[in-house]
Amino acid sequence: MGWITVIFFTLLTRTESENQTCKVIGRTGFMEFSKEGDLMIGGVFSMTSTRKLVDNNYQKFPYSYCIKWNDRELRFARTMIFTVGEINRDATLLPGVSLGYRVYNGCGSENLILAAVEAVNGEDSRGCSDKIQAVIGHSSSGVSTAINRMLSPLSIPQVSHLSTCACLSDKRQYPTFFRTVPSDRFQIAGLVQLMKYFDWRWLGIIYSPGLYSEEGTTDFVKYAKKEGICVEYRLPYSKTSKKKFIAITAMLRESSSKVILMFMSFSDAKSFLAKIEAYNITGKQWVGSESWITQADLASVDTKHILHGAIGFALPQALKPSDEPQSDIIKAFWEKFFDCSFSPSNTSTMCTGTEDLRTVSNDYTDVAFFREENNVYKAVYLVAYALHALLKCENGSNPTTVLEHIKYVNFTTVNGANVFFDENGDSIAQYDLVNWQMKDDGSVDIVNIGQYDTSFPEGERFKLKKDTKIVWGGNSNEVPRSVCREPCPPGTRKAINKNKPVCCFDCFECPEGTISNQTNSPHCLICPPEFWPNKKRDRCLLKPTEYLSYKEIMGALLTGFGLIGVFLSLLISIIFLTHKETPIVRANNSELTFGITFVLCISCVLGKTIVVLMAFRATLPGSNVMKWFGPAQQRLSVLTFTLIQVGICILWLTINPPFPRMNMKYYKEKIILECAFGSAVGFWAVLGYIGLLAVLCFILAFLARKLPDSFNEAKLITFSMLIFCAVWIAFIPAYVSSPGKFTVAVEIFAILASSFGLLVCIFVPKCYIIIFRPQQNSKKHLMGKIPPRTL
């Protein structure tokens, strides 16, 4: 900082040599700095910010004077003066033409407008009126709107360095307004992307009165809503309203949002922080607008619990010192800095000009970054390049004005910044994302942690620096969470509650058979027919296929019984083959015993029943029926009955045969592998024919129930047919109502039960006689003496 001391001392001694005129602030004059040139530009700044009214008891014309210096605005004015000097030293820009300036000061909006009027109609030090080519300023959006309404009818361009209100982009209202600071719509877009990046969907806003804050807050809410970001509250702050401040503190304590956007001007932010520091408001992440986020003098030990970890977008930094001569106003600042006086005084010591500026810390001496000053620097160069283009085509056939040329200016400053305008008069938007990292002594390091640059494609504009430490608000070691409702997890759907903000949605579990595999999914998706959701309902899984398997208990039992039946059939066959010459086997009608299907089997049983009846009728005197139902007729009857069933089956298999089918309707969560009928008529025709033969066999056997006890074939057939019919009559409702694999199990059970009924009732008693009662296995015992009976 030693070079600043040398510069100030040199400037104080070189004032007269530069013929720099300084006029004392009065009731009619607002010009503070001026330097004559061939072409003149004006500047309007608020180098003083507090007024005091002198009413003269209203006996004379009242007037006001300013009593407080604005360090930052003075720095803007000095940047303009420095830039004009740098341009005049450049032999390639405006060659042969000198650029002059008139810098005007005013405190209060009405004085600033009067200062702008004076800039347009002002006179130089010789009393000659020179028209200014452009006006630089003002910092306030509200003041800039008023100034431009006055300048636009005169076609005088206005270039602001800090008026960010998006409303100024409206060329119908402000046709001659340009700015080197990005419009608030870019800052707002960056803030929305910041909230979106860190998933801050639920926040509060505190703003101050004025065009900058009110318009900015309104636009932020509008753009945030499009991105699904909700505002819990939006409260205005006023320096003079205690009621509004109490409402703010109450809301900060009660609100559930963790993120607070403080969209205020610098002066309002300073006032608000001075009041809020006394309240124990903790656990909040503060986000600042560019107007105050880089103002390090807001930091103190008392505001550490509030501002520690604050983040926000700031104008890009650029280092550029000043070496232009200073005016007498600098003496006032010097006297303020060091509490001394350049004129003899009884109340303060004399200023020597050698005081050490390194001991002073305020807005004016803070030259670390020059963020806003860089915009002043670009604004002056912008006007110079427009004038340069105007002079180059001065003798052309189409004379133009500086206003028309300024629209198309495109240049790069010595700092590497590219300057040009879009159709709204807005320059390219570049911001640094800064983070407040406060120390124990109350000082702060404002660290650059990222960037937002609208020159990049959409989606690549917001970037965080890698390996950069970020300090979070609320003493948090990780990114704070600020949502009204946590995102709906996969397996649920998001439903908007009409009585709440869109961020305060409800989450409902997906209905049966549907899934959602994303967070905050508005709809649940139906799984394909062969799939079913898992328990979390976030994935569709292939449905398990159910069928009667040998590996499960039911399948194993049925298989076991089937094998037992096969074993018993083989055993009985062996017994009968071994004793085939015995009377009981010979009387068994072996021609009809072994069938391969139920029809064949029942046909055989039916034939056996007929043979029994015929045999006993043949014992009656004069009867010769047996010759009509001998072995050949018995085999023919079985063949005929069987061929009828074969015909039915052939028709069924030809017209509409059975086929394997995956049944996905009976159970929603699994697939039933089953054999479809194909033709229901064919299926029931086959069963019906079997049933018809079984009923006919049962009736005939029932009629033979009173035959002699020694020959019990008819009784055995009756019992077997009774079991057979009972099983298959019960089978029909059981088969129709049984689900899935139980349908097959019922069918197998019916087959086994009826088969065992035939096997046990007809053959087991005969095997018992053959093995355990061989004395009864004789023709004499079988025939016995039959008393005369009628059928």
From TrEMBL:
It is found in: Cell membrane. InterPro entries: ANF_lig-bd_rcpt (IPR001828), GPCR_3 (IPR000337), GPCR_3_9-Cys_dom (IPR011500), GPCR_3_9-Cys_sf (IPR038550), GPCR_3_C (IPR017978), GPCR_3_Ca_sens_rcpt-rel (IPR000068), GPCR_3_CS (IPR017979), GPCR_3_vmron_rcpt_2 (IPR004073). It is a multi-pass membrane protein. Residues 1-17 form the signal peptide. One of its GO terms (molecular function) is G protein-coupled receptor activity. It comes from the Eukaryota. CDD domains: 7tmC_V2R_pheromone (cd15283). One of its GO terms (cellular component) is plasma membrane. Keywords: Cell membrane, G-protein coupled receptor, Glycoprotein, Membrane, Receptor, Signal, Transducer, Transmembrane, Transmembrane helix. The keyword RNA-binding does not apply. The chain crosses the membrane at residues 553-576, 596-616, 636-655, 683-704, 716-736, 748-771. SUPFAM superfamilies: Periplasmic binding protein-like I. Residues 591-786 form the G-protein coupled receptors family 3 profile domain. Belongs to the G-protein coupled receptor 3 family. This is G-protein coupled receptors family 3 profile domain-containing protein. It comes from Acanthochromis polyacanthus. The lineage of its organism: Eukaryota, Metazoa, Chordata, Craniata, Vertebrata.
